[in-house]
């Protein structure tokens, strides 16, 4: 079984969280926290900074570790480390088909990729703005 090690950014701004809509692949149209694969020799934080630049043409500050989660998909096993982040620049969608800033009241209004629901629950239970 294939294993993927990825990072994801929980980007906060004005009491809202950024979510992006997948623009390609098996999960196209579903919502996720932006991020991606960790390359060999990268720290998780460095991978996240690089991935956000590649996906959103944005610079971020990785503020703190949030949670690790694991999820079994039919074709692969996912290990994801999530970090609370803030933006240093505006975003521009380069790979996603949409983006939304969601308040805590709105966070369940989109159809999340399955693994990201664990991060959504973390936000509901633990995140302070």
TrEMBL record:
<dbReference type="InterPro" id="IPR000086">
    <property type="entry name" value="NUDIX_hydrolase_dom"/>
</dbReference>
<dbReference type="GO" id="GO:0044716">
    <property type="term" value="F:8-oxo-GDP phosphatase activity"/>
</dbReference>
<keyword id="KW-0234">DNA repair</keyword>
<keyword id="KW-0515">Mutator protein</keyword>
<dbReference type="InterPro" id="IPR020476">
    <property type="entry name" value="Nudix_hydrolase"/>
</dbReference>
<comment type="similarity">
    <text>Belongs to the Nudix hydrolase family.</text>
</comment>
<keyword id="KW-0378">Hydrolase</keyword>
<keyword id="KW-0460">Magnesium</keyword>
<dbReference type="InterPro" id="IPR015797">
    <property type="entry name" value="NUDIX_hydrolase-like_dom_sf"/>
</dbReference>
<dbReference type="GO" id="GO:0035539">
    <property type="term" value="F:8-oxo-7,8-dihydrodeoxyguanosine triphosphate pyrophosphatase activity"/>
</dbReference>
<protein>
    <recommendedName>
        <fullName>8-oxo-dGTP diphosphatase</fullName>
        <ecNumber>3.6.1.55</ecNumber>
    </recommendedName>
</protein>
<keyword id="KW-0479">Metal-binding</keyword>
<dbReference type="InterPro" id="IPR020084">
    <property type="entry name" value="NUDIX_hydrolase_CS"/>
</dbReference>
<dbReference type="GO" id="GO:0008413">
    <property type="term" value="F:8-oxo-7,8-dihydroguanosine triphosphate pyrophosphatase activity"/>
</dbReference>
<dbReference type="GO" id="GO:0006260">
    <property type="term" value="P:DNA replication"/>
</dbReference>
<dbReference type="InterPro" id="IPR047127">
    <property type="entry name" value="MutT-like"/>
</dbReference>
<dbReference type="GO" id="GO:0046872">
    <property type="term" value="F:metal ion binding"/>
</dbReference>
<keyword id="KW-0235">DNA replication</keyword>
<dbReference type="GO" id="GO:0044715">
    <property type="term" value="F:8-oxo-dGDP phosphatase activity"/>
</dbReference>
<dbReference type="Pfam" id="PF00293">
    <property type="entry name" value="NUDIX"/>
</dbReference>
<keyword id="KW-0227">DNA damage</keyword>
<dbReference type="GO" id="GO:0006281">
    <property type="term" value="P:DNA repair"/>
</dbReference>
<feature type="domain" description="Nudix hydrolase">
    <location>
        <begin position="1"/>
        <end position="127"/>
    </location>
</feature>
């Amino acid at each position: 079984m294939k294993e993927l090690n990825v990072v994801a950014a929980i980007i906060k701004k004005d009491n809202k969280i950024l979510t992006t809509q997948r623009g390609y692949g098996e999960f196209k149209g579903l919502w996720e926290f932006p991020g991606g694969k960790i390359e060999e020799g990268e720290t998780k934080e460095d991978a996240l900074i690089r991935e956000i630049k590649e996906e959103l043409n944005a610079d971020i500050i990785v503020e703190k570790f949030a949670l690790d989660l694991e999820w079994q998909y039919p074709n692969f096993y996912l290990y994801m480390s999530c970090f609370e982040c803030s933006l240093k620049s505006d975003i521009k969608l380069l790979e996603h088909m949409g983006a939304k800033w969601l308040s805590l009241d709105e966070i369940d209004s989109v159809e999340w990729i399955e693994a990201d629901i664990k991060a959504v629950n973390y936000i509901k239970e633990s995140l302070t703005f």
